[in-house]
Amino acid sequence: MANHLPPLQLTMRIEPGCLGPDGVEHVEQFCQFALEPFNRLGGQALQWTLIPRYDKQLPEIEYGLGQHRLSYAQAKRYLEHWSLNLDEEEEHISELLSELIDQFWQR
Fold it and tell me: What is the pLDDT of residue 32?
């Protein structure tokens, strides 16, 4: 059944400060750099968009299906159809983000 469901869309806003004091100059390039590795998380169940987080009033992560925004609880229930746990996926996000920041600066 899960193979016929559309992927959960995740929009993640990347804080420029996580890239250091001049991160604002590099955050857009980092978002492009990190997109492919993020798209491997969750396989076909997740579709990522990475953008800079210039407005701190906007959430760090937003969930959606098509044009509809989902709450965290709705997204969590939806991923259960894919046999994925949103809490575990978010742990992977933190680990991956840290690794990618290191890789970004080493290239």
Answer: 97
What is the distance between the alpha carbons of residues 78 and 56, in angstroms, rounded to a whole number?
27
* Dihedral, 22, 25, 31, 37 alpha carbons, nearest 10: -50
Distance between CA atoms of residues 7 and 68, nearest Å: 13
H or E, element range at 47: strand 46-52
Do the Cβ atoms of 47 and 10 come closer than 8 Å? yes
Structure pTM?
0.87
Tokens (6 digits) for 44? 């076909």
Radius of gyration of the chain (CA): 14
Quick check: 1 pLDDT over 60? no
The owner of tokens 């001049």 is 22
Query: What angle do helix axes 72-80 and 86-106 make, rounded to 10 degrees?
Result: 100
